[in-house]
Amino acid sequence: MRLLRSTDLALRLLMRLAVAGEPSPTTREVAGDMDVPYTHAAKVVAELQHLGLVDARRGRGGGLTLTEKGRTASVGTLVRTFEGDGDVVDCEGTTPCPLHSACRLRGALRRAQEAFFATLDPVTVADLVREPTGPLLLGISRRPHDG
Fold first, then answer.
1. Contact 22/146 with Cβ under 8 angstroms?
2. Is 82 within 8 Å of 7 (Cβ atoms)?
3. N or C: which end of the chain has fewer CB atoms below 10 A?
4. What does the pLDDT read at residue 145?
């Protein structure tokens, strides 16, 4: 299973904000730090803001901050939200699979997908930035940070 680019960016962005100091980084700065297009980062920030995980303030003194809900968010829930709840394989696409009515693979893949999410459920964003990850995240930023 491979995560969508937006899921990966959302997780990395939340991790980056979990260790951000003052001043708060902007969407453009975070996009630059992560080497992703600004437009893609802006879409992910908008979704994270809609979910109540990130506060985004515009203008002078603005920037992105992680909310308490974002800090304690379950990684499993975040991945489910960004990935959607579809099957790993598309058995009913434009050319439906001839095994669809009697296939055991689809159920096995669904159980594996749920096990994947269940493994991530107890992990929070705060857990992801514990030593040694947090200081490393600060080190890859292009901006100076308060230590």
1. yes
2. yes
3. C
4. 45
Q: Of 38, 43, 117, give the one whose Cα is nearest residue 84.
A: 117
In angstroms, the CA 99 to CA 145 distance is 56
Mean pLDDT per 10-residue segment, the chain (147 residues): 90 89 84 91 96 89 90 95 83 79 84 93 93 70 49
pLDDT at residue 147 in the model: 42
Beta bridge partner(s), residue 56: 64
Which region, left, alpha or beta, applies to residue 95 given φ > 0 means left and ψ of -120 to 50 means alpha? Answer: beta
Tell me if residue 100 falls in helix, strand or coil: helix
What DSSP character marks residue 74? Answer: B
pLDDT computed for residue 118 by the predictor: 94
**Helix residue spans in the chain (DSSP H):** 5-18, 27-34, 38-50, 68-71, 75-83, 105-120, 125-128, 133-140
pLDDT at 138: 65
The C-alpha atoms of residue 56 and residue 111 are separated, in whole angstroms, by 37
Nearest alpha-carbon partner for 45 in 36, 35, 56: 56
CB proximity list for 13: less than 8 A, separation 6 or greater: 30, 34, 41, 44, 45, 48, 54
Q: Which single residue is written with the structure tokens 């055991």?
A: 104
